[in-house]
Each structure stands twice: as C-alpha cells, then as structure tokens.
C-alpha cells in the first residue's frame, strides 16, 4: 500500500469518527523550546497546557516532523528518519483510554478491503506502563489479547511528559512482530528491531509539579480534563505494509536511494540480510543519502536556509552529510541536481507546494552544494599541510586541535578527516577532538539554557488572558482612540490591583487600539487616560500569548486601579509613519517579485517609523539596475493613488485571489488579506496607509546579504526619504565645491583624481622594487653551502608577496646554474608572513622541490602553501616565526642534499 494511501485511510477513518482534520503545521512552528516540530501534538500544545480552549473535542492530523536527535540513528536502525510524518488522533476531554485503544485496534486490524491496514492481530504486541492496570485490562479483556503479548514497561519507555511541569501520563505503544528473520524472540523489551513500534498512545491524566528527568518527577494530582494524544509513524506503517526491511526502502524514500546507488555504481543490499545490524557500510551510506535528501527538501520547503546555527545548521549538516556520503561512495560530481528532483517527485503528491516553490528550493540546495564543494577543496589543502607537518615532525598522529579546527572552520567532518588522514598513513587524536567538540557543545547548551529561561513562565499571562475571556479585542484597525476598562495589571511580573506614579507596569485592557509588535511591525506607543485622572504612558506593546495584549507602560501621574474606565490614545504620528512603512514593504515585496519571479519569497521584515527592511530569498545579489527599477516602479504606483484595503476571507479564497503568503505559515481558516489597489495582495495582520499617495516617497538605501540565499533591502518612506535625499544633495554640493566643477562633472573629476593617485602609487612601488634589487646584489654573498647545495635564506622584512617573489627570482638568477641552489625569502605584509622558495635545475635534480620546502616554512608560520617544483609560495599567521621558518627550510635542504 502506498504511503499516500495509508495517509488517506487514516484521515478517512478518523474524520468518519468525529475528528476534525487539521492540516500539518509548518516544521518551523514557533515554540521557544523546539528547533522543529517533532511530534503531532506540538501544534496542539496550547490546548493540552490549558492556555487556549480547543476548537474541537476531537482532531486528527498528519504532521510533518523532524527529530534532530535521531540523525545518528539514520541508516543504522530500520526505523528512524530525520524527517517523518506523524499521524495523530487527539481527544480534548472527550474519549480516553478505552476509546483510543479500540480505535487504534480497529484501524490497524480491519481488513484492507474494508478501509483498514489489515495487520495480522496475532502479531500485535502492545506495551503498557508498569502499573496501568486499566490499559492492561482493555488490551486483555476488551481487545482479547493474551497476557503474554502485553508487556509492562517502566517510566523510561512508557511514561510521557513534556520535560517541564504540566500534563503527563502513561502511554501504550503498539508493536508488530516482523518474524524471526528480523531478530530474537521475546517481545518489544527484547528486540526493538524485530518487534517494530509503529504507534504510541498517550493518556494524559496527571498534573506534574516537578520534572527532573524522564523517569524522575512528582505527580501533583489528576488533571481536571483528561486528554488523548497519539502518534503513528506514517513511514513505519509503510515499512510494514510494503513488506520492506526498513524505512529507507518505502515508496517515498527508496527511489532516491536507488538513484544514488546507480550514480555511485553500487548495488544496494547485495551483501546484507534483512537485519540492519548486518548491513554493509555502503548500504548505510545510501540510506543516509536518501533520508537526508528528503529531509533537506522538506526543510527548505518550509523556509529554512543553510546557515551556521540553529535550524540553518541542521539543514547544512544534512545536506553536507548527504554530499559527503556520495563522495565516500565514490561519486564526486554535484549530486543534488540528480537526487533532489527524485525526492520531489515522491513528495509532491502530499505536498504540492514543493513543486510551486521548486525554483527557490532547488536553488538553495544547489548553491549549498557548490559552497561545500569549494570548502572541501580548501579544507583538503589545509589537511594535506597538517598531515605533511605531522609527518615531518616524525609524528604518527594528527592532533585533535587540528582535526577540530578543520571541522570548526572548514566544516570538515571528522570521519572525512579520519579517512583522508588514514589514506596518508596517519591516525587522528580522536580523544582530543571529542573533548574539544564536547567543550563546544557545552557552550552551546549553556547558550540554549540562557535562551530558554528568557522565555519564562507564561502562567501569569494565562491568568490575565482568562480575565478577558481569552481574547483582547483589537480596535486599532478602525480607530486610534478607544474607550476601555483596565482588566489587569502586573508590577514586576506579579499581579497587582493598583499602581502609582513612577511605577512601570504591564497593563491589560479589555479592548485596545494599540497594535502589539508582530508580523514584522513594531508596536504602537501612546497614552492611557484614566477616569480617575491618572495618566499612563505606553512604551511598548506585546502579545506574550496568543489573544492577549500587554501594554508596557509607566504611570506618569495619579493612581491606576484595575477595573477603572480608561481612554486609550495611540500616538498618531508614530502609527501613521509605521503604517506607511508597512504599506511600502508590501509594494516593494510585490515589485521585487515582478522583477525576480515568485521564488523571491519573503524571509522577514521590520516596519518602523519612516523606515523598513525587507528580507527575501534570492540566490545572488540584486543588481543595481533591478534595485533602481523596483524603486521607480513603486514610486510611480504611489502617484496612481491606489487605495489600500483589508478583507477577511478563507484561506482558499486568499489563494485564489493571488495573495502572497509563505507556505507553512500558521494561520487558521479565516485570514486577513491586505490589497494595494488590485496590484499587491498579501496575508497580513498589520496596519496600513489608506491610499498610496500618503506614502509620499520611497527610497531604497541598498541591498545586502544576510546569510546564504537571503538578501535584505532597506528603505526610507515619506519625510525620512525626503530628508535623506536632501542630505545627499548637500553632500554633492560640498563635493562640487571641493573639486570646483558642476555636479554632473563629479564622476569624471573624482575618477581623474583616483587615476592620478594610482599612478603615483605605481611610481612609488617601482622605486621600492629597485631598491630591493639593489640590496639583493650584496645578498648573494650570504649564500651558504649546505651539503653541496647553495642555500640562500633571507628575511626581507616589510614586503608583500609580489615583492618577495620578484626578489627570489632575481636572487636565483644571480646564483646561476653552475651549482644546485635554493633561495628562500620571507616577508611580512599587513602583519602576516609570506614565504617564497625557488630551486634551480641542479637542486631539483637532487630531489629538492620548492613545493615541499614552502609547505614546511608555511607550516612553521602557522599556515599553508604550495606551488610547483621550481617556485612555490605560502603564508601563515605568526610573523615572529620567519627566522624559524627559514631555518626549517635550510635544515630540510641539508637532509635532502645529504
Ligand atoms: P523510537 O523508540 O522507535 O525512537 P519513540 O518512542 O521515540 O520511537 P514516539 O516519540 O513515541 O517514538 O513517537 C510516536 C511514533 O512516531 C512512533 O511510534 C513512531 O511510529 C514514530 N517515530 C518516532 N520517531 C521516528 C523517526 N525518527 N522516524 C520515523 N518515525 C518515527
Ligand atoms: Mg525516538
């Protein structure tokens, strides 16, 4: 049965049983504790935590998941993908254990011709939490399974919680016995490969007051409302129903594996049995390639770009691991253009947005492969130098610090270092490397921890939110002043009923015209006047939990009490100015898409008073001419006096109307669409100008890169744009006065000045070289005989690589060809040492090559280099070591000569 069919049957089954089908959320759903959505329940967390009221009693979904913790398992177990899909059914205070177990049983064992999965009931082995007699009884008495097939397991395996105080409960996992070819008998506790877990049913029934570890926590008491959260691995069910040995052989993954094997000229699985533990290393590599290519496709699809931290790093790691695995398999050409389209073809059935976004996705992936190929080339030179240096010192082991530097600076994975060092007969100090890696990880962890605590506790906000019925009405789309009531107040994070002049408070109103920062738009500022006469100044407005608006404010005068009537006034100038910027952002977004195509999707933005920045996906810089076109297009449209309007509609209507939106954006069914005339339509919750003429003028300040594949334009709007242009005019005025010309002559005049400056510099340079050469004449007297070879070593002091090279060639010429000779000269340019070595024919005849000598010298200088046998050049970090470097070269010449 195809994976798509398994998914379809799942949704049919549960929607036919009263569950609302909820589409998968983006992998990047905002959750301070998670890099990626890693389970079906994540989008429902606010309901399980009691922060929001669920919209339904029952729901079902097929959720995209990524588990970075499973990266190392890929290919080595039969059942772990980095990307996978979790089918879930959820009950919010509706059915509980009995409902969850019997529904699962029905779907899994119903014959395939009746819409079920048709697994053999005799092969099913559930587990339950050690003292969950209730679940045990349901499996035994109601479902009718014999007691020996129901395993009781402890907290580590069968108790679920979120790692923080909150809901928790026992779970029941469902396994299928795949038979003796897959391992040992005895049930899930004995062999998790033969007995494959495919579904986990979680029974949320307790409130935990403290959680110290997976198996160490305190139960405070029963939950007021008991919930069900289940997760069935779609790929795992596909593994079982397609009769294949592992997750990498199912229809959504295998075609990539097959293509990779064909490219590398390998035959997959020939020397392996059914058990993954017996796999040939090449088979493991092929599975890694197939898994990582698919995960990368899905991650880029949801908007991740490769980078050096967080989500971007995970993506980079997977892409690079896939590429490197292909190299280790013997395929050296760019592989992603061959593999990614194969994955697309399998995944687009369930995720059609992948095809419509394909240009952006493929460009991002291919650019990363190109970058990595360059890294590999550079890293290989560095590695060769490190290996050479180690060997010269008589060592057998490449230092841990060097391996770590290669990894950290050049992205060189340790196993690649190991393999390449081994090819040259060296081992690597793995312990040292691991220690340095661990230190780095500890630092990262400390960072993450610091970040986590910054998100703090949301329970006070939850209480405030309950006080306003879960939602503060935002009146600011239509008015800038509103009558409201003080619904709650926090002082230093704790609820208070009143506050007095001078105090900083967090204020909640039952309705507010103040826009809370969000969607790339900064918060409003303004004043709140109280019926009792007090005055409060609003500095910032945030929405810490969905539906709640919190005004960060200072009591300027009087006494503020909860329950009082208030008159809220937004600072109109600031609001208008931000709104103009926001409208301008939409227009620039649209104009950029007109110029570059629909792959230029938004990656972020910030709208502040009078200015904005807009980030978008593009694989290369925006040429100046495009920037100018975008700017004039937008300014021309301002004069058309287009009206700006907002409308609430269904998601489908928005798409039909051509609204620009990021796939994977989290939005409910109804969305707000902002239109600029008929021209630009975009999903947006922000505030805007009423007509484009109100913007006045838009000036783009420039364009830059803010990471691989993401560009940023910054711009000014309205009066700020005008002031900027006025200032530029003033600068032009000053310049024309300096060069005594008219403004239009400026480029020519300045160009002329620069050309003359260059000429003067060239003259200076020529003089210096002449001087150096004059000095060289006397230098030849200092040449020494080293075992029959003439060696001339010299430190030229301040001199750049070009000077040093000229000097070396000159000296070699002066020494002539009568005797074998070697010249080595060092110099220091901008604080960095350079070295050039040259040999003559006689020296080369004795096996002395410039390339080798320069590597030795550069190694001593803390860098690298290379070149041909007759002349070679290198450089390093440490200018104090030039003497040592020359001595090392001389010593080696002696060795080779002798
Ligand atoms: P395992 O012990 O096999 O790693 P788990 O206990 O981590 O599984 P759960 O957290 O209970 O799994 O997730 C629910 C279901 O999701 C599992 O029963 C399984 O079917 C599926 N699943 C979990 N991790 C993966 C993965 N890395 N790849 C594919 N499916 C997975
Ligand atoms: Mg797991």
Q: Name the hetero compounds present.
A: adenosine-5'-triphosphate, magnesium ion
Strand proportion: 25-35%
Characterize the overall form: globular
The overall pLDDT, averaged over residues, is: 90
How many strands appear in the DSSP assignment? 35
What would you call the structural class?
alpha+beta
- Parts with pLDDT < 50 across at least 5 consecutive residues: 450-456, 663-667
Name the helicity range.
40-55%
**Largest beta-sheet characterization:** 9 strands, mixed
- What is the radius of gyration? 34 Å
Number of helices: 25
What is the terminal-to-terminal distance? Answer: 74 Å
Report what the structure shows.
The chain has 898 residues and is an alpha+beta fold. The chain is 40% helix and 26% strand. It has 25 helices and 35 strands. It is globular and about 100 Å long. The N and C termini lie far apart (74 Å). It binds adenosine-5'-triphosphate (ATP) and magnesium ion. The site of adenosine-5'-triphosphate has 16 residues, from strand 3, strand 8, strand 9 and helix 6. Adenosine-5'-triphosphate binds next to strand 3, strand 8, strand 9 and helix 6.
Name a few traits of the molecule.
about 900 residues, alpha+beta, six-stranded antiparallel beta barrel, 25 helices, about 40% helix, binds magnesium ion
């Amino acid at each position: 049965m195809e994976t798509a069919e398994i998914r379809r049957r799942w949704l049919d089954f549960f929607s036919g049983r009263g569950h609302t089908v909820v589409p998968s959320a983006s992998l990047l759903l905002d959750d301070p504790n998670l890099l990626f959505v890693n389970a079906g329940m994540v989008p429902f967390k606010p309901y399980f935590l009691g922060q929001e009221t669920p919209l339904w009693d029952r729901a079902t979904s097929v959720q995209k998941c990524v588990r970075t913790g499973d990266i190392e398992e890929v290919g080595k177990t039969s059942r772990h993908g980095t990307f996978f899909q979790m089918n879930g059914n959820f009950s919010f205070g509706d059915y509980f254990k009995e409902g969850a177990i019997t529904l699962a049983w029905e779907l899994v064992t119903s014959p395939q011709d009746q819409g079920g999965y048709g697994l053999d009931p005799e092969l099913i082995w559930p587990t339950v939490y050690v003292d969950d007699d209730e679940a045990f009884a349901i499996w035994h008495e109601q479902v009718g399974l014999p007691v020996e097939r129901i395993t009781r397991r402890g907290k580590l395996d069968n108790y679920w919680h979120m790692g923080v105080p909150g809901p928790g409960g026992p779970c029941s996992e469902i396994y299928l016995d795949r038979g003796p070819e897959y391992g040992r008998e005895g049930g899930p506790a004995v062999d998790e490969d033969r007995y494959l877990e495919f579904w986990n049913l979680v029974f949320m029934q307790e409130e935990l007051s403290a959680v110290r570890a997976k198996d160490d926590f305190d139960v405070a008491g029963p939950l007021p409302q008991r919930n069900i959260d289940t997760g069935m691995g779609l790929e795992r069910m596909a593994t079982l129903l397609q009769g294949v040995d592992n997750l990498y052989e199912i229809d959504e993954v295998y075609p990539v594996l097959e293509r990779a094997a064909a490219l590398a000229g390998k035959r997959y699985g020939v020397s392996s049995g059914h058990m993954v533990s017996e796999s040939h290393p090449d088979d493991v590599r092929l599975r890694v390639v197939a898994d990582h290519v698919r995960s990368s496709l899905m991650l880029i699809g949801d908007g991740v770009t490769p980078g050096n931290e967080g989500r971007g790093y995970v993506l980079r790691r997977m892409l690079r691991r896939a590429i490197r695995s292909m190299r280790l398999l013997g395929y050296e050409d760019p592989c992603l253009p061959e593999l990614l389209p194969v994955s697309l073809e399998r995944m687009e059935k369930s995720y059609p947005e992948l095809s419509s976004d394909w240009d952006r996705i493929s460009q991002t992936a291919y650019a990363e492969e190109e970058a990595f190929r360059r890294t590999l080339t550079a890293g290989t030179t560095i590695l060769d130098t490190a290996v050479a240096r180690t060997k010269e010192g008589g060592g057998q082991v490449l230092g841990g610090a060097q391996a770590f530097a290669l990894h950290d600076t050049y992205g060189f994975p340790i196993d690649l270092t190991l393999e390449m060092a081994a090819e040259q007969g060296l081992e690597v100090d793995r312990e040292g490397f691991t220690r340095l890696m661990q230190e780095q990880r500890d630092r990262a962890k400390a960072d993450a921890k610091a970040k986590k605590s910054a998100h703090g506790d949301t329970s006070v906000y939850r209480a405030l939110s309950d006080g306003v019925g879960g939602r503060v009405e935002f009146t600011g789309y239509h008015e800038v002043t509103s009558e409201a009531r003080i619904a709650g107040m926090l002082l230093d994070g704790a609820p208070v009923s009143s506050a007095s002049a001078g105090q900083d408070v967090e204020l909640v109103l039952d309705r507010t015209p103040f826009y809370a920062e969000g969607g790339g738009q900064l918060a409003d500022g303004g004043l709140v006047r109280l019926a009792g006469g007090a005055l409060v100044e609003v500095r910032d407005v945030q929405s810490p939990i969905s539906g709640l608006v919190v005004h960060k404010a200072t009591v300027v005068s009087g006494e503020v009490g909860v329950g009082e009537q208030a008159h809220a006034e937004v600072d109109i100038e600031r609001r208008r100015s931000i709104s103009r910027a926001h409208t301008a952002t939409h227009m620039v977004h649209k104009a950029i898409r007109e110029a570059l195509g629909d792959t230029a999707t938004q990656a972020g933005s910030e709208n502040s008073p009078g200015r904005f920045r807009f980030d978008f996906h593009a694989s290369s810089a925006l040429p100046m001419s495009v920037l100018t076109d975008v700017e004039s297009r937008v300014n021309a449209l301002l004069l058309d006096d287009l009206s700006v309007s907002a409308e609430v509609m269904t998601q489908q209507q928005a798409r039909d109307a051509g609204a620009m939106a990021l796939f994977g954006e989290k939005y409910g069914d109804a969305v707000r669409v902002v239109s600029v005339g008929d021209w630009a339509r975009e999903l947006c919750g922000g505030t805007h100008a009423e007509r484009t003429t109100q913007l006045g003028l838009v000036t783009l300040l420039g364009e830059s890169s803010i990471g691989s594949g993401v560009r940023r334009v910054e711009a000014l709007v309205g009066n700020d744009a005008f002031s900027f242009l006025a200032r530029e005019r003033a600068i032009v005025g000053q310049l024309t006065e300096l060069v005594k010309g008219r403004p239009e002559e400026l480029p020519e005049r300045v160009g002329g000045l620069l050309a003359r400056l260059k000429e003067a510099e060239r003259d200076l340079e020529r003089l210096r070289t002449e001087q150096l050469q004059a000095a060289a004449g006397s230098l030849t007297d200092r040449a020494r005989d080293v075992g029959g070879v003439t060696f001339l070593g010299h430190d030229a002091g301040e001199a750049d690589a070009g000077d040093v090279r000229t000097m070396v060639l000159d000296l070699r010429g002066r020494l002539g060809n009568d005797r074998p000779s070697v010249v080595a000269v060092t110099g220091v340019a901008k604080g960095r040492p350079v070295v050039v070595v040259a040999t003559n024919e006689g020296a080369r005849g004795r096996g002395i090559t410039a390339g080798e000598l320069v590597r030795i010298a550069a190694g001593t200088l803390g860098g690298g280099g290379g070149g041909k046998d007759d002349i070679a050049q290198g450089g390093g970090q440490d200018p104090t070591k030039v003497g040592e470097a020359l001595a090392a070269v001389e010593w080696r010449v002696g060795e080779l000569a002798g």
